[in-house]
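Q: What structure does this chain adopt?
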Amino acid sequence: MLIELLLSLILIIIGTKLASHLCHRIGIPAVIGELLTGVILGPALLGLVLHTEVISLFAEIGVILLMFLAGLESDLDKLKKYLKPSVMVALFGILLPMVFLSGAAHLFDISWKEALFIGVIFSATSVSISVQVLKEYKRLDTAEGSVILGAAVVDDIAVVLIVSLFSAFLSMDSTSPNGIGLLWELLGTKILFFLGLFLFAKFILNPLLALVKKIVAVEVETAFALVLCFAFAILSEKVGMSDVIGAFFIGLLLSKHESKDKMEHNVSVISYSLFIPVFFVSIGLDIELSAFKEYALLIIVFTILATLTKLIGGYIGGRMTHLGKEQSLIIGAGMVSRGEMALIIVKMGENIGLVSPGHYSAIIVAVILTTLFSPLLIKFAVEKAEKKQLA
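A:
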């Protein structure tokens, strides 16, 4: 097992670095090459790397570290400043996919219950891919970058709550909580999480970091940053939210610390050498070519609608809060990627019987295709904005 894992990691590291180099040479986002590396190495083509449980664990650590780094590189004041646009972008980015994807699914003779859940799946945004592309184009710490990050967090929380509602109503019986009890089960722990995060930042974080600085050990501050990253990822997962939310927010709190640059550099070395490449490759590993043959039309319709609804929803949200056309287009493009968030929700749907086995592969392929298109859309939107600035 160890030899198989090491061989897989060798192939993933070499493959992603060569693919990134090739992408830079031909002028497309490096993440496209990394995603396609998974398709080439995986079951869809060569079958050299399989999506094993260990690879999944490496990938999960990769996305946690990626969002932790996104928090470290963000500006808390800027995120607060663009809270209103973030909420509007998230709102339209959930509403449009819910309406259009659910309606389209029902037109394919899918039951309303499953169709509505498919709408929920495509309402989710995975900003981890967008973060990587925005970093590549030096757009993460901008107005549009802040709105994309803020909207993705709001989107994640809202979609998790919607999925929780679906699960609660499906599993409801005479012993299930209702009224205030149900409301507490859905919202209470999440409110406590953010309250705890606020109190930790206000009273504990700085004294704790001062104490850590006194410890004589190699890279103690970076090690402690990773401890906080993983601890808050666990906490957010325990209260029913995505682990990346906890990782992002603790990274955001650490972004104000004097050792932020050192932490960011050291965590980046660890992350981009191993864990983040595995995450990008793991998405491509889920592609099954057989799904194209059996559900070609469904995949095409889902992919087009999933791309357009997020793109247009993000654009409308940006324009309604008085952001420029070019900024709003970048925001819309940055919200298109579904990635791991949608993959997690579709798996949950399959487990609770809301997604039929027949449609599972078609949804997975459509999710991955939108994730592949997102970096290209961001590149197009950024280049358009840069041309406007030069004109």
